[in-house]
Structures are given as C-alpha cells and as structure tokens.
Amino acid sequence: MSILNYYQELNRLITKIEVSDINNRQIEFSSAANLMMEMILACKGTKQKIVLIGNGGSAAIASHSAVDFWKNGGIKAITFNDASLLTCVSNDYSYDYVFAKPIEMFADKDDLLIAISSSGQSKNIINGAKAAQKNKCKIVTLSGFAKENPLRTLGDLNFYVPSNEYGHVEIIHHSICHYVYDMIIKGER
Fold it and tell me: Which of 5, 21, 59, 140 could form a disulfide with 54 if both were Cys (CB 3.0 to 4.6 A apart)?
C-alpha cells in the first residue's frame, strides 16, 4: 500500500465513523464530537476530572490527551499508567482490574471516563468502564474492530471506527481527542 492509499483509507474511515449513545441510538459524528466537548467542559466548570484509560498505543493516546487537557485546557485529567500502580494492581487483583480498582478509589460522581480500546474487547478497559458506571461517572468510549464489541455498549457516547487495522483505529482515536481539546483551547466551544 502506498502512503497516498494509506491516507485515502484514513479519509474513507473518517466518513464511516459511527457514534451511539448508551441506548444504542445513532448520533451524527459532528454532533457527537460537540457532545463530547460539552461533557469535558462540564468537568472544567464543576471542577470534576477526566480519567483516561487504554492499553499500549491507546495508553499513549490517554497519556498524551490527559497532559493536553490539564496543561493546555486547564481541565483536571489523569491516567493510571504509572508502572508501580500497574504492577501492584495486576499482582494483587489481576490485569483485568488494573483500571477498575483505581477508578473505584479515585473517580467521583460526574467525573468523565474516556475509555480507549482499539478492539473494544480488552477486559481491563471494560471493567474500568463498569467501575466508572458504579461510581456514576459519565463515559465516552473509543473503539474499533468488531462492530458489536462490548465496549460500545458501556458509554454515554461510543465512537466506533470500522477498521481492523490498529494504526488506522489509533490515529483516528487520537485525532478525535485532539480535535476536541484543540477546539476547547481555541475557545470554539
């Protein structure tokens, strides 16, 4: 595949992004991005925080986004990617609960969880989202791969990229986060 074909495929996928709510009602992509901005701005206005979780490349997106939200946007944002936390929780509870346990401890009512999983199948991300539900947090999910992945059923907003290619899914997930905080920083929302 040439680089132009690679970018053409990204462009095609962007036009195919699906977004649904907790009741599986479809939401137009642009409207959903605006709703995500409103959820984030609500955190800023109420002093709530954004919690971002992901594995591997998705963890990198979570970390990058958290820094941009607090440093550039003045919005409290954290990840749970510290090596000591990851190894402690994995050892004591199992990796399936590596995000659920800190969310149970640190996430407050009306905080916002952004759960990022290329496959939407990662048990630790799903358990993290379920812990956030129990804590009465708002939830945004970013997933790809199988259309019926379980993460897509857990968010107030569920962004789905219809691709099985990690690179394409991760690039689009990161671009969604970047768009949202770029617009917030520019004051366009």
Answer: 59
Render the chain in DSSP notation, one character per residue.
--HHHHHHHHHHHHTT-EEEETT--EE-HHHHHHHHHHHHHHHHHHT--EEEE-STHHHHHHHHHHHIIIIIT---EEE---HHHHHHHHHHT-GGGTTHHHHHHH--TT-EEEEEESSS--HHHHHHHHHHHHTT-EEEEEE-SSTT-GGGGT-SEEEE---S-HHHHHHHHHHHHHHHHHHHHTT--
Q: Domain segments of the chain: what residues?
A: 31-185
Identity of the residue numbered 126: I
Q: Could you tell me which CATH number the domain at 31-185 has?
A: 3.40.50.10490
Per-residue model confidence as pLDDT tens digits over 126-174: 999 999 999 999 999 999 999 999 999 999 999 999 999 999 999 999 9
